[in-house]
Write a structure and sequence with these properties.
single chain, alpha+beta, 8-stranded mixed sheet
Length: 414
């Protein structure tokens, strides 16, 4: 989806916009109140990320070939853009720390960590301080070493699969569009992420790997490519920005999106502003555990606007519609709940809403007495907070290195 409005006056947007909450860019334009400062936890994560990126830079510099170019980090943006273009026009095999020229039509700006020569142009690669691979018995993944980060020179690792970090590939898609705008994009649609495994994990941005809602072809879900997802999300957010600009200029309240609680909220600078809406009354349904945007949308469409409304629904009806009940058992159903059909998220949502809005400090699940605690002959106590960097698999010939706790147990007990 391209922008439907005139976005020519929207400020240039970086690579994060397509993966961020759309309310965020709306508030960035309206600036309704002073933003919240980054939390100490967020600052620590940023520092860890910068330290990791610096260590990757050192490794690349150690392995550097004569055609590799490292842009000096203290250059101003204009000078860095000039140096980046000069390096690409000279055919540099790798460019680290470059700035791409602003994309005027697309309102894009961006600074990919690496640009890699791939045949007739360049592909983007970003450095991320997280794991990029998962153990998967039937999986296989294409990776390149840091000494040879070439999308056409890779090894296929069996028993592994790429982690699908949607935000990562949307950022890569942003840089891909910028490379196209300045005429230096490779005909290859590959793009890479360097994670904690310290290899380049390659993605094909034109591979349909993301399940999304669909209204065409009589299907409820459809597989789409990373570029399709990015173009839709980015264009939508530019329209939000343009609408917010027009609303601000005319002093009208004409907004495209409203706050919905998500995992992004704790680190968002507009948390306090959104909480004025989310915490009003009994609280927004999105505050309930396990309620995603899609489920929040169902509540909105059926007229349920707060947690009190969810709590008032019939738990019995929700359970019956989600069970293998016989037709004769489906009697005396609550009409307001029955319209949800067999919505699998609804029974838990009702209980959570009642716990959140009720007067008691603790609520027992239906049918639970709380008198019996099941015990086992062997019991495991996992000290989760001591596993920040995962576990070392060690000694594996297929290159398996750092794995998180869930992967550790999968290896132990499979």
């Amino acid at each position: 989806m391209s922008s439907r409005l005139d976005v020519s006056r929207v400020p240039f947007q970086g690579g994060y916009i397509a993966k961020q909450c759309p309310v965020r860019i709306q508030n960035d334009m309206l600036y309704p109140a002073p933003p919240v400062s980054h939390s100490l936890d967020a600052l620590m994560r940023m520092a860890d990320g910068n330290t990791f990126e610096a260590s990757v830079l050192v490794e690349l510099q150690t392995a550097a070939e004569p055609t590799w170019v490292f842009i000096v980090s203290d250059l101003d943006r204009a000078s860095a853009v000039d140096a980046t273009i000069a390096a690409m026009e000279a055919g540099a095999g790798l460019v680290f720390g470059g700035w791409l020229p602003a994309d005027e039509a697309g309102r894009r700006t961006g600074k990919p960590d690496l640009l890699i020569m791939a045949g007739d142009g360049y592909v983007p690669v970003d450095v991320k301080h997280h794991l990029t691979l998962d153990v998967e018995d039937d999986g296989q993944v294409s990776v390149s070493s840091l000494t040879s980060p070439d999308p056409f020179t890779f090894e296929v690792r069996a028993g592994w699969a790429r982690r699908r970090h949607r935000g990562d590939v949307l950022q890569l898609a942003h840089y891909r569009r910028m490379l196209e705008a300045c005429g230096h994009a490779s005909s290859s649609m590959k793009a890479g992420i360097i994670g904690k495994e310290r290899v380049v994990v390659w993605y094909d941005l034109d591979e349909p790997i993301w399940q999304t809602p669909a209204k065409s072809d009589g299907k409820k879900r459809k597989l789409r490519t990373s570029m399709e997802i990015y173009d839709f999300e980015y264009g939508f957010r530019l329209d939000i920005a343009a609408t917010a600009q027009q609303s601000q200029a005319s002093n009208a309240v004409d907004l495209l999106v409203e706050p919905v609680s998500s995992g992004e909220c704790p680190d968002c600078p507009w948390l306090n502003q959104c909480n004025l809406v989310l915490l009003a009354g009994s609280g927004d349904p999105s505050l309930l555990p396990g309620i995603s945007y899609a489920q929040w949308r169902v509540f909105q469409d059926l007229g349920i606007k707060d947690r009190a409304g969810v709590a008032a629904l019939s738990y019995r009806t929700a359970r019956l519609l989600n069970s293998k009940a016989q037709p004769e058992e489906l009697v005396d159903l609550d009409p307001a709940t029955a319209v949800f059909g067999a919505a699998s998220f609804l029974p838990a949502a009702i209980l959570n809403a009642r716990a959140a809005t009720g007067e008691l400090p603790v609520y027992r699940l239906p049918g639970r007495t709380g008198t019996d605690v099941a015990r086992a002959e062997i019991e495991l106590d996992v000290d989760m907070e001591s596993t920040n960097d995962g576990k070392e698999a060690g000694g594996s010939e297929d290159g398996r290195r750092r794995i998180e706790v869930d992967q550790f147990f999968r290896l132990c007990f499979r």
